[in-house]
Each structure stands twice: as C-alpha cells, then as structure tokens.
Amino acid sequence: MTEFVLDVERPARIGLEEAVYAAGKTAAQVAAILAAAAERRASLLVTRLDPEKLAALPGTLRAEIDYCDLSRTAWFGPPRPVRGQGRIAIVAAGTSDLPVAREAERTLRYAGEAATVIADVGVAGLWRLTRRLEEIRAHPVVIAVAGMDAALASVLGGLVAGAVIGVPTSVGYGVAAGGRPALDVMLASCAPGLAVVNIDNGYGAACAALRFLHAAGRLAGA
Amino acid sequence: MTEFVLDVERPARIGLEEAVYAAGKTAAQVAAILAAAAERRASLLVTRLDPEKLAALPGTLRAEIDYCDLSRTAWFGPPRPVRGQGRIAIVAAGTSDLPVAREAERTLRYAGEAATVIADVGVAGLWRLTRRLEEIRAHPVVIAVAGMDAALASVLGGLVAGAVIGVPTSVGYGVAAGGRPALDVMLASCAPGLAVVNIDNGYGAACAALRFLHAAGRLAGA
Amino acid sequence: MTEFVLDVERPARIGLEEAVYAAGKTAAQVAAILAAAAERRASLLVTRLDPEKLAALPGTLRAEIDYCDLSRTAWFGPPRPVRGQGRIAIVAAGTSDLPVAREAERTLRYAGEAATVIADVGVAGLWRLTRRLEEIRAHPVVIAVAGMDAALASVLGGLVAGAVIGVPTSVGYGVAAGGRPALDVMLASCAPGLAVVNIDNGYGAACAALRFLHAAGRLAGA
Amino acid sequence: MTEFVLDVERPARIGLEEAVYAAGKTAAQVAAILAAAAERRASLLVTRLDPEKLAALPGTLRAEIDYCDLSRTAWFGPPRPVRGQGRIAIVAAGTSDLPVAREAERTLRYAGEAATVIADVGVAGLWRLTRRLEEIRAHPVVIAVAGMDAALASVLGGLVAGAVIGVPTSVGYGVAAGGRPALDVMLASCAPGLAVVNIDNGYGAACAALRFLHAAGRLAGA
Amino acid sequence: MTEFVLDVERPARIGLEEAVYAAGKTAAQVAAILAAAAERRASLLVTRLDPEKLAALPGTLRAEIDYCDLSRTAWFGPPRPVRGQGRIAIVAAGTSDLPVAREAERTLRYAGEAATVIADVGVAGLWRLTRRLEEIRAHPVVIAVAGMDAALASVLGGLVAGAVIGVPTSVGYGVAAGGRPALDVMLASCAPGLAVVNIDNGYGAACAALRFLHAAGRLAGA
Amino acid sequence: MTEFVLDVERPARIGLEEAVYAAGKTAAQVAAILAAAAERRASLLVTRLDPEKLAALPGTLRAEIDYCDLSRTAWFGPPRPVRGQGRIAIVAAGTSDLPVAREAERTLRYAGEAATVIADVGVAGLWRLTRRLEEIRAHPVVIAVAGMDAALASVLGGLVAGAVIGVPTSVGYGVAAGGRPALDVMLASCAPGLAVVNIDNGYGAACAALRFLHAAGRLAGA
Amino acid sequence: MTEFVLDVERPARIGLEEAVYAAGKTAAQVAAILAAAAERRASLLVTRLDPEKLAALPGTLRAEIDYCDLSRTAWFGPPRPVRGQGRIAIVAAGTSDLPVAREAERTLRYAGEAATVIADVGVAGLWRLTRRLEEIRAHPVVIAVAGMDAALASVLGGLVAGAVIGVPTSVGYGVAAGGRPALDVMLASCAPGLAVVNIDNGYGAACAALRFLHAAGRLAGA
Amino acid sequence: MTEFVLDVERPARIGLEEAVYAAGKTAAQVAAILAAAAERRASLLVTRLDPEKLAALPGTLRAEIDYCDLSRTAWFGPPRPVRGQGRIAIVAAGTSDLPVAREAERTLRYAGEAATVIADVGVAGLWRLTRRLEEIRAHPVVIAVAGMDAALASVLGGLVAGAVIGVPTSVGYGVAAGGRPALDVMLASCAPGLAVVNIDNGYGAACAALRFLHAAGRLAGA
Predict the structure, then answer these.
(1) Using CB atoms and an 8 Å cut-off, which of residues 8-67 of chain B contact chain C?
(2) Given an 8 Å threshold on Cβ–Cβ distance, is B124 in contact with A175?
(3) Is the dihedral of CA A8, A13, A17, A22 positive or negative?
(4) Mean pLDDT over all residues of chain C?
(5) CB of F125 within 8 Å of any CB in chain G?
(6) Which residues of H158-182 are buried (b: 16+ CB within 10 A; e: fewer)?
(7) Average pLDDT of chain D, as a whole number
(8) Which of D14, D196, D207 shows the shortest C-beta gap to B197?
(9) CB-based contact (8 Å) between F215 and chain E?
(10) From the list A94, A174, A185, which residue is nearest B187 (CB)?
(11) pLDDT classification of C196: cutoffs 50, 70, 90
C-alpha cells in the first residue's frame, strides 16, 4: 500500500508548494515523507508538528529541520530567499494568538515573503491599535489574527483599505472555546469584504496571501 | 382552569412591574389579562405584540393602548412620570438594531426613566462612534445593541467606564442568522465586565438597567 | 432619534462604498436612506431587497432603481463606468447558486468591474468544469459559488493559481439546509489558501475581490 | 516581535485594571508579563493559572504571588485595601460551583471590595436558600453562580431587588457538560433583568459588579 | 400501497391506545384513518390537528369529533368514563405553556383519568407556587410543564415526593426558541429523579403517567 | 466560607436521600462531606467517584466504603435492608452500557430495592431480547439503558406495559459520541410514554423509579 | 450567462440519469431546463416540485408530466420499461414517512425498477414488522424509511441479510424536528453495515440502490 | 449479572459475524469475551483495541491475535480464506485517512474479501486521482475514505458507476474537527446515490460492502 504521493507539480499548478500536516500522521509517516523529499532534494514545510513527534524523527532528518516551538512549524531544508517585504502585515489581538500568527509568518517566510508582525493590539485597549494604524495601513495585505470576540478583524476591516484576511483562533473558554464564535463574527462582520480561513489556520491565511501576491503579479504584468 | 395570576407584589419584591409577553399568547389570552388589569386599575407593559394581535383586541382595550410598531410594544395605561434622565444611554450599531433599542427605550420610559438613544454607530465606520463618545461616556449605564459581529459591544466595553449591558440582535443571514454569534462574542468579549442579556431582549436589558438603578439608590442611601 | 448615518468617507478609507442591506429594514427605513442619498446626489447599492419592499418604495425613488429580481439587488443611481474586465471569474456550481453569483456580479459591476460568470460546472459532471478550465485560469481572481457539498471550491483550489474566494450557498435540504456544511468544507478544504465569506454572501465575495484589486494596484505601484 | 503591551491606562479609562488570562499562555509568556509589571512596580491579577504553570515560574516572581488553588487565581503584588464591604453577595448553588465563586471573590477583593459568599443553597433544597434570603437581600448586588439547571439564578431573580449577575458553570455531565444549558436558561430566565456573563467566568462577573459600583458612585455624585 | 395499519392490540400489550399524530399527515390521510376506525367502531385520539386540517375533514367525521383549539387535540368518539381522579396534577409555569398542559389533560381525560390543572405558578413569583404547594403535593404524580428557564421543574422536584414528569415547552425567543434549553435543564436538574419527555409533548407526558398508573395497579395487586 | 450544607430533610420531603456527586469536587471536599456525615452517623451514596479520588480519601473514611469500580459508586455506610424485589428490571443493550446500568442498580440497592439486571439484549440480535421478554414483562417498572442508536428503548416501549425509564449512554464514536443521538431518539420515540433521564444518568433513573414506587405506595394506600 | 448544462453523458459514466432538483430553482428555470430536454427529446425526473411551481409551468410542458403530489415528483416523458422487479423493498415506518418512500419508489420506477413498498411497520408495534418479515427478506436490497427514533432501520439491519439503505425523515417535533436524530442513529446503528443517505432523500436512496444493481450486474457478469 | 451474549446466529441471519467494539469495554471485559469465543473455537474481529488494552490481555489470548496498530484492529483466530478479489476498491484521500482505510481493509480480509487500497489521491492534486481512475473503475464497489472537505467522495461519485460507500474521517482541526462537515457533505453530495456510514467507521463501510456482495450473490442466483 503506497501511503503518500508528493504533489510535485503543485507549485507550477497553483503557485504553492505542498506542506505536510503532521497532526494526523504518525512520526513514522512523517519521517517517510521527509526521507522521500530528502531523496529528491526537495524541501518541505511541516505544520502542527508537536515536540514529541519531532523528537521521534531520525536524527539525520532532525538535523535538516529549523523548528519553532511556539508555532510548531518545521522548515525541512532552507527557506527560499526573501523576495518580498513590507507587503503583508500580520496583526494579532493578544499574546494567546501568537502561535497562529507565527505559523502564518513562518509559512510566508519559507516561501520567501518577509511579513511584519504587529502583536497585542486587541480592541479592549483601542489606543494600542490606533497608534500603530499607519504602520498597518502601509501594507496592502493584512492578516488579522484574533480569538474570543475577534472584534479586531471588524475594526481593522473598517479602517484599512486593501485585502484583509481573518484568522479566528480557538483561544478562550466557555462559549469561546474552540473558536466558533470568533469564526462566525469574522464571517458576519459589518466591515465588508473580509476573507476568512479556518480556525487557528495561520498556514491557510499565509497561503491565501501568497495566492493574492501571485494574482497581483499577473495583474501587474497584464 | 385559571389561566393567569398577576404577580401584583412584584414591584415591592424586586422593583420591577410584571409585563406581558404577547408572542406566546393568543389574542384572547392577552385581552383577558388586560381586562383583569383594567379592573384593578393597573397599567401594564406588553411586549412582542404584533399588529394582527393588536387589531384583534377589543376596541375598549385598544383605546387604552399607546402602541409602537417598530418595537411592537404597547403601553396599557399611562407610563410613570419621568423620574430620571441622562443616566442610561442606548447605543445601537445599525438601523436594523433599532426595534430592539426601541423596546429597551420604551420599557425604561414606561418605568419613568428617559434614556438617550444613539443610533447607527457601528464599528465599520469607527468615526461615527468616536465622535459621539463623550456623549455616551456621560451616562453611567450604557446599553449596547448590536447584531452580526457585535463588535460595538467590545469596543464600547474598552472605552467606557460604568456598567455596560450588551443586547445581541438576530439581524443578519448565514452564520449570523438568529444572533448566536453576536451573543457569544458579547459573552466572550475581551473587554472585561460586559453583562449580557438574551438575543433581541431589549426589554431584559432595560430591566437589568432598572435593577442597577434600584441598587444604586440603595448604595447611595447607605 | 437619528436612525442612520451614511459613512460617506468609507470609499476614501477602505476603497469600498457603503451599501444598504435591506433585509433587516422596513420599506420606510430603506426609503429614508435612499432619499437622503438622493439629496446628496450619491448613488447606492441595495442588497436583499425583496420585490414587496421594492414595490412599497415611493415611485420617485423606484424610478432611479435598476433592479434584478434573481439576485434581489438594486442599483440606486448609475453604476460606475467599467474600469476592469477579465480580471475576475465567478464560477457557480449549479442553477440554484445563480442568485448568489449574480449578487456578486452586480456588486462588482456597480463598482466598475465587469466579471465573467461561468455557471453550472459542479463536480458531479467533472467534464463540465475541465472543458472551461483554461477560461477560468485566465482570470487572476476566481470567486467559487457552491452549496451542498461545495466540492467545486476545493477542486478549483487545486487547479487554479491566483486568489480563490469561496462563497457557500444555503441550497439544499436535510443536513445541507442553511449551508453550514458547504461553509465548513470550504474552510477545511484540502486545497490551501481558499478565502471564504459568509453563506450566500455574494456581496461580500465581490467586496473581498475589490479589496484585492485595490491591494494589487498598490503592489503594482510600489 | 513585541509580544505584549500592558494597557496601563485601562483603570483611568474604564475603572478596571488589566488582568492576565494565563490559560492561553506559556509559562514563559506569563513570566515575561509579570517581570515587566514588577519592573514598573505594578501589581497584577492572574486568572486560570494552573499549579504546573505556577511551579514553572521563576522563584523570585513566585515569591510575590498569593495563590489560591481552588480558583487558580494569583495575586501578583498586594491587593488594594478594602474600600467597600457588604455591597456584593456571591451566592453559589453547590460545592462544585465554588471555584468560580472564589474567582469572583478574589477578583473583587483584589480590587478592594470584600464580598460575602453564601454557598450550597441550590434550589433542590429550597429551605437552604430561603433561610438565608434576608442576608442575601441585604446586598444591593448579587452574583448568582450555578451550573446544571441553574435554577438558582431564576429563583433569586424573582426574590431579590437590585442587580443580579448570573454566572453559569460547566459543572455536570451529559447535556449539562460545558455549561451551555445553564447559560441559556440564565439568558432565558422568566425573572426579568438578569445580567449574564460567560460560562465559568467568575472574573467577568466581578468586573461587571465593579463596573456597576463605578456607575453607582457617579449616580450618587450626580 | 397500504398506507396505515392500526395497532389494535396496543392496549392489551402496553396499556395505551394508539393515537394519531396529525401534523405529519395530509387531511386525506387523517380522514382515511378515522374512517377505518369508524368502521371498526373504535375511537381515537388525534393530536396536533390544526384547524385547517380539521376543516378539511368530511362533515360526517367532523361530527364525531370533540375538538379543543388551544391544544389542537381531537377526540374521535367519546372518551372513556372517568376511572381516576385527584391522582395526577398538571402544573404549568405560564399562560404560554397552557396548550401543552391542555394536551396532557385531554389525553388523560380521554383515557378516563381526570387530572387537576394548576396554571401560572412560574418561579419568577415564587409565592404563586408555594401557596398552592399543598394542593400539588396531594397528587402522587405531577406533570410539570415549563419553557424558557424551566426552573419550575427543578423547584417542584425539590419540593414534592412522588413521580415528577417534566415537559419542556418551546415558548420564547433567542436562545430559548425551540425549547432545547428548557429540555436540557430538566434533564440536568439538581433535583434527582425527574423523568422527562420531548419538547411540547403533553401527549407523551400523559402516556408516561398512564404507564405509571398501570404499573402502580400491578404493584398494588402484587 | 461554609462550603456545603447537607439537605438532611430531603428524605422526609421528597422520599430520596441526598447523594454526593464526586466528579465536580476535589478529594478534600468529598472527604469533608463524608466526615460531616460520619459525625452525624448518616450514610451517603457517592456517585462518579474515580479510583484516584477514592485513593486520596483518608483511610478511616475509605474503611467505611463499599466501592464498585465498574460504576464508580461508593456506599458510605451500609445500604438499607432490602424492602422490595422483582419490581424493577434494568435492561442494558450492550456490555459498554453496564457501568450505567450498575450505577442504577447500586443506587436502588442502597435505598433497599433489589433490581433485576438483564444485559446484552440489544436489538441487533432481536432474539436476545425476545427470549427474555417474559422475564422483563414481569417487572412493573423497566429501566432501559442503551447508547448509539438506543433502539432498545423504543422496542421495549412497544412491547411492555408499565413504566419505562430510558437512560441514554455516551457509548460510541463519530455522531454517537457523547450520547446526544441516543438521548434524542428516546425523547422522540414512536413508542408513547417513555420517560427519559440525562445521558449516563443511571443514578437519576434509579431515583425516578424510587419516586414512582413512592407514588405507587400512596396510590395503593388511597 | 448560460444557466445550466445538462450532463448528457452521465448515464454512460455512472449509470444514472441526471434529475432536476426543483426546490432551489424558479419556475422559469425549471421550464427552461424542461424545454431544453424536450428539444433533445430527452426525458427527465424532477424532484421537490411543489404544486405552485408545477402550476406555473407552461401548459405544453405540463402536458408531458406525470405528477405525484404526495412525493412532489414529476416524470417528464415516459418512464423506462420495467426491467427488474422484486429486487428492492421500500419499508416505511409510518404514514408520515410515505412521501419520502414514494419519492424513492417513483425514482426507481422511472429508471425501470419496480420496487415493493411495505408501509406502517414501525417498531412501536413490532408485530406489524415481524408478520411481514419474510416478504421483506425476499428482497436482496431493502430501503428503510423512518423518522423520529428511526429504530426500524436498526431492527431491520439486525434481521435481514443483503443491502440495507437507511433514509431518515424529518417527521416530528421538538428534538426530532428536522430529522437529525433519526439520521444520527442510523449512522450509529448497532446493526452493522447500514448505508445511509441524507434526511428525506428518497431520491438518493433509490440512486444508491440503482448503483448497487449496476455493480451486481457487473459482478454477475465477471 | 451475565455481561455479554454472543450473537452466534448472526452470520446465518444477516451474513455478517459479530465483532467486538473494544473502545467502550475494559480489558477484563474484552478478555472475557475472547475467552468465551476461544472456548467455542470461534474466531472474532476486534475493533478499536488500543495498544494499552491489548497489552493488558492475558498472554494466552494475545498469542492468538494478529494485531494492526495503524487501524487498531485485532484478528482473534485466523481470517477466512480469500473468496473474492478485485471486487472492492478502498480509496483514501490522504495519509491521515489510512487508519480508517486499513480498518475497512482488515475487516474485509477477515471475512475473506481481498480489497484493493488506493491511497493519497485527494482532489487538491486531481491528477493523482485521474491517473488511477481506470484502476478504481475496474472495481464494482468503491469505498471512499476522506476527511476535511471530503470532496473526494463527490468527485468519485461523479466519475464511477457502481456502488460508492463514503466514510468520512475525523481528520483535521477547527471546523473540521470531529468530522461532521465531512459527513454532512457526503450526505449532501451533488453526485447522486452515495451511501454513507458513520465518521471513522471503516468497519461499517466494510460491512456495508459485504452486505452488498451478499445481495449481489442472491441477485446473480435469481
């Protein structure tokens, strides 16, 4: 039973490289995928790799990994050189949203895009957001990471032009647990044109941003 | 089968008069309750009375009613004289939230409290809120009425001191329909100390505010 | 009680004009908003305006309206001249998804963007999609409109580069009713980087696309 | 990447000091926040700090902490001197609700308010409640903490005047697990004017009470 | 296609006669079932028969029907003579719960059991309940009908011995709509031993009570 | 802060003794309650006491405990002498339902009622049920314990006269996980008159049965 | 905008002809699709066509339609000649499940398969099922149609060999409303190997059966 | 208390042998069931047996077990000899779906059916599916295993004739967690005639396939 098939033509097809979602896989499966990539001298981004699974990988594979424990992402092989900068801002409401923000940042950086992270600007203290608004507005694409009431996304959507991608997080307890309310209010935002990804999906927000950059490149060329 | 029992000692007990929730009752039941009140020369607030049910009431009862079709509230008998003013602000995010805001306003006014209504200050255009912030802050008690993303409640909670009572509304479609996300984010607000009532419950928010005033009176007296 | 406040600086702030969501408003409220806009010689997009409410508007206002009954959208005042074309494809899975696709198309056209609509290409007959794939791929931005299993969005996401905005629809019955499964699978798509808006929110998808065009313009200028 | 920004002007703005919600943060993040506060000689309330995370803090920080393991709250630095007493009653239905009641009590005490806790008065044995009713009624503000059927909140709401703040708890199993039914019946209470906070949110109830005291002070001064 | 099969041996088997649930049937189907019963000189209880469907029945069948429009129940053929009395109390929280209470009462009466109905004793005014408590306690079996917070059921469960059958109702709006919270808190009641039936199921509560009487008869005989 | 108040008059009031629900309590709280009971020479039933919490109790208290690890129930002090037998059958669908069935059995036995347990008679092999049907029918009260499809309860309800109390269990995975479908189909059973308790609530089912026996005693005496 | 594309090669590809789901379409859209089919001399099955929409079709199209108002299905053009018989049994629990059963029957018959319908054999009166069990068992494929507790599907699954396809229905009120519990218990059935389709999806169950027959033909030929 | 009753006539009745679902049972209960089977020289399939529970079985029983840790299935006693081959394809979307696919494969093999497993053909890279389409089409019965968006099932349903059985998996996070969206879109697939089983129920899918082979055998014989 062949267990996996790398989608090697994905970059040519959709402009994004395949990544490995480690949470649903055993350490052995992750190791096999990395070994196959190593054989083809390909690099890979691994998401949701917890420290225990990392520790269970063979040392030779581990040696090729740049690991971030806050976001649980691994770069297997070197990231692409930086090609863009100052184009994407990642804005996070609170400290608890940082793992998701970092996952987005690391996904973008691996693809060669250096994003700006602006943290702890939740709307409970609106001044924290307004004093950094000009800095945020300087980026044509904004990723808003927020849990609980996720009001940051709506407020940003009403204040900045350009693309806004909302990432709800599962932070919180009681009705907030799991992040469904944060997701739903991003979808139901009174600020028009928010684009939303799955709860805690920093990786997906980064991919959406990369798709935008890809499209913008084509529009500029047209 | 005796079908209803007026709770005549309620004002003495909890400082609030009984009101009639008409939505779950037939026109005949509402008429019987009003007639009993008329006999005892009591006045009554009726909520959720739709125009068809109003039209089905006997003319003699209808003649005693001050009806508001936006909020579907009826005053049966005269409201109390105004005893307080400028103490409660009702802040509504959008035009669609006005029926609920009006229900709160009419409930308060019936009890003798003249509230200030500040409408259409949703956060999608934050300047609409900030330019009226001082006016809002002048009221020790604020009722925030908002549906969809309900971000107004969190933003207000972070900007005003004093009591903030959130009323989520069922405005919207898709995930917003029914108002559950608006409710949940008010409960999960990153602004601490929001007090929340049921979806579309302008009446309940007004009662909570009246309870606050009652308590404040006792505290002042102590 | 001032009931509404037009957000006249919205275009300058976020590059999108305010629109009127008619579903939560009475005909009288819609009429008042339109009259105010007429006075200021502004034009307005109205969404979710059902025929009954349209018929209840004063004739003088109705005379200024271009109405589409499939999408229940109204243009109050002339749309902007076409500024872009062939940049956005709206791809709809089935006939039942057309009202939502049309809402997106009309929103874009009102803002001066002529989109291409490609309909009835659901994946149950994959050949319908593949034979039009090159045409779709020619557009840097794709809006995918689908209900029920919403598999179209994932399949498109795996086949096209550029931005993909998913709009789930509430088409269907049983577990599909209301569109939650369609929404959830767009969010959980195995094709990375889908950006999603609320159920049936053709208007929101169009706004997200306009935000993206705005960002692309800035990126091109940078 | 600056990970947090203390909202130092919060007390001036809304009358409440910022607190640290530890559940979504790593021990290292909590330690960094406390260290920053220590540097500015500020004190802080920490909620949802589990014993493992407490044990992982540096000893110098731990030495400044007054910890309560029932409520998992930590006072970092001394609480304010007592300014009010006998104004707030915290009424808990059962032993299992005590952690939440204690969180409310400790939050209030940290802010200088000494609340009265009345425990194990659930309505399954109504006499337990009625024999303490006068004591409860002596407090203008009542916080009702209850899980499972949460009937205590409704019964109290029908018996006491003044402000009633309901805190549903996640106690129980089967349909009760997570506390949603307790929350929903507090919101749908037939006793008018209950103000409700998130499930298990003793901290939030205390903040709502503090907001109310703030408002009452202004009302008394007016 | 034979569309229905009367379960004529049901009384012998489980001590309950078959009833016709009209809501899911066309008027023609109901008429056919009644005609078949008439042919066999059987009588039948019909539940959830709305007035339109009643009006659509042939006059000859309608002539045999005793209809109650509050509960939408029809007796087709005479009820059994009264065999028991004072054994079952039906206690309803509010006027809006009366249709369900009446359905229970009419189901019992049709089977020969005369129940006592005690209405409008919701716990928001606890004195209304306590002044009738002795009367309620005189009945070995109590059916508690309540919606919204359904606190009546828990309070009764803590005050009366004997069997307590809870019937949640779908009265209310917002989170209460549909009756799920009322159902859940009856199931999660802190008063032990409540037996619960489906939302709005007055018929089912009556059948549970009849099953109890059947069992009690056997126990007495043993 | 007094943390608990034993409801000592509960037996006189509702015919049931108070039990201790250990799941929401710390070992220290359970120990304190047991010690207080020991002091008053009272015995107590403890439910949901997991082995770790049992082990953490003081040896002197543990010595008084009869513990069943399948059902996690503890008898603190001797059960009442057997007063009834052959009156209640506990019928369980599968092996996985036995912990709940045993909780019901132990609750009944502690109160002096010896129930008959009939296990592994799920409807997937209907012959297992039918061959024991006469034995089941010999009991006036039947407790049906079933998870997953819970079809056993409906089938029993259609086959036996007398009281049927359904206890849904949380057995299973996927859609069955948590037991909500099992609960819902018991409530929606096409067999009339099922009385239902909370998911996994063997204790509650036993209490409902005891309430019924209490009522039957009064009916027999009347 | 081309609004629909008939999938004319579907029969060759998957052995099933395309059908028109009318519920999500306007009468004009249905008419256009039928007219296009008429032009190509194709016949079509239409599902969920309500009488109002039927009446709104042009008379020339209506003349070609064989309509069944119980199931709201329309045959546009003649059904295929009968090719199979006695191979599929459709077993329905109650009268209220007949519309769905009939939809399955009409879908099968249109494709040339004459199914046997066995109605009103719900498990509340198990004898109704057992007396027809041999007849049911004579069919290698059984479609079980049931709502509310849907216990019929599990009981059948435990009694018959061969393929069993469960169709939950949305019959009922309270927790049963919408059919989710019926669906879930079919999926969680303790009888192994039930195959389930969407709520009320008689059409889908028929298609699943046709797929089985197609596969069986290939297996027999192999 | 007899705790289990093997359904020994199940194969004769429905063509499937009983299997042991270990997740809801203690190791002692599993051991007792296996010992009873051993005594009767019967073999048994055990599902959801985690490694800890396996390790807790007596060595003599463990010696008879062929265990697969990916799928957590155990064969107790030898599988049946292979009777069929190339009739059933198991198609899995991703590596994370393999445990469920393997459970189906092992269930089939134990019953004597050798299935073909085709893995990692999710639609995000459609070419992976299309290049193996002919191989899949060669099997009259296809089991589609997919989580997250589960689009594979719809795409397959539109491409292959013959029976398609969908198994949703609980892979993923955020809205995907638990597998409900994957289940719902399989049920709501626009490809007609998908037959669906419970989330993660590879065993059930295999049983449905075996039922179908049983039916096909009878159809071929007829």
Answers:
(1) none
(2) no
(3) negative
(4) 94
(5) yes
(6) bbbbbbbbbbbbbbbbbbbbbbbbb
(7) 94
(8) D196
(9) yes
(10) A174
(11) very high
Please report the DSSP string for E155-221 in residue order.
HHHHH--SEEEEEE----SGGGTTSHHHHHHHHT-SSTT-EE--TT-HHHHHHHHHHHHHHHHHHHH
Between chain F and chain D, are at least 3 CB pairs below 8 A? yes
Interface of A with C in 180-199 (CB under 8 A): 183, 187-188, 191-199
What are the residue ranges of helices labelled H in chain G?
10-14, 27-39, 51-55, 59-62, 98-110, 126-130, 133-137, 151-159, 180-187, 202-221
Taking the C-alpha atoms of residue D197 and residue D143, their distance in angstroms, rounded to an integer, is: 10
Question: How far is Cα E200 from Cα E202, in angstroms, rounded to an integer?
Answer: 6
C120 vs G4, G26, G180: nearest CB? G4
Neighboring chain A residues of B94 at a CB cutoff of 8 Å: 190
pTM for the model stands at 0.96
Residues of A in contact with H172 (CB under 8 A): 24
F29: Cα separation from own chain's centroid: 23
pLDDT < 50 regions, chain A = 1
Q: Which of H149, H169, H173 to mutate to test the interface with C (most CBs of C within 10 A)?
A: H149
Q: Work out the angle at residue A32's Cα, subtended by the Cα atoms of residues A28 and A35, and round it to the nearest 5 degrees.
A: 135
Using a pLDDT cut of 90, give the percent of chain E over it: 85
- What's chain B look like in SS3? CCCCCCCCCHHHHHCCCCEEECCCCCHHHHHHHHHHHHHCCCCEEEECCCHHHHHCCCHHHHCCEEEECCCCEEEECCCCCCCEEEEEEEEECCHHHHHHHHHHHHHHHHCCEEEEEECCCCHHHHHHHHCCHHHHHCCCEEEEEECCCCHHHHHHHHHCCCEEEEEECCCCCHHHCCCHHHHHHHHCCCCCCCEECCCCCHHHHHHHHHHHHHHHHHHHHC
Residues of D in contact with E174 (CB under 8 A): 187-188
What does the alpha-carbon distance between residue H20 and residue H200 come to, in Å, rounded to a whole number?
Answer: 16
Cα(E20)–Cα(D91) distance, integer angstroms: 48
d(CA H10, CA H14): 6
Q: What is the b/e burial string over F154-169, where b = at least 16 CB atoms within 10 angstroms of the residue's CB?
A: bbbbbbbbbbbbbbbb
Instruction: Characterize the bridge pairing of strands E163-168 and A195-196.
Output: unpaired
Q: Does H206 touch chain C (CB under 8 A)?
A: no
What pLDDT is stored for residue E7 in this prediction?
80
- The pLDDT of residue B1: 46
Residue E194 tokens, joined: 């409540």
Helix (H, G, I), strand (E, B) or coil at C73: strand
Nearest CA of chain D to the CA of F175: how many Å? 15
Contacts of C101 (CB under 8 A, 6+ apart): C90, C92, C117, C119, C143, C145, C202
Inter-chain residue contact E124 with D158, CB threshold 8 Å: yes
Tell me which residue in G70, G128, G174 faces E198 most closely, judged by beta carbons: G174
Contacts of E222 in chain F (CB under 8 A): 87, 140
Mean local confidence (pLDDT), B112-127:
93
Give tens-digit pLDDT for G68-122.
999 999 999 999 999 999 999 999 999 999 999 999 999 999 999 999 999 989 8
Sorting pLDDT into bands at 50, 70 and 90, what band is F3? low
Nearest to E96 among B2, B10, B24 (CB): B24
CB contact under 8 A, G15 and H191: no
CA angle at G120 for the pair G117 and G123, rounded to the nearest 5°: 120
Q: What is the mean pLDDT of residues C15-21?
A: 89
Cβ-nearest to A158 among C14, C19, C157 = C14
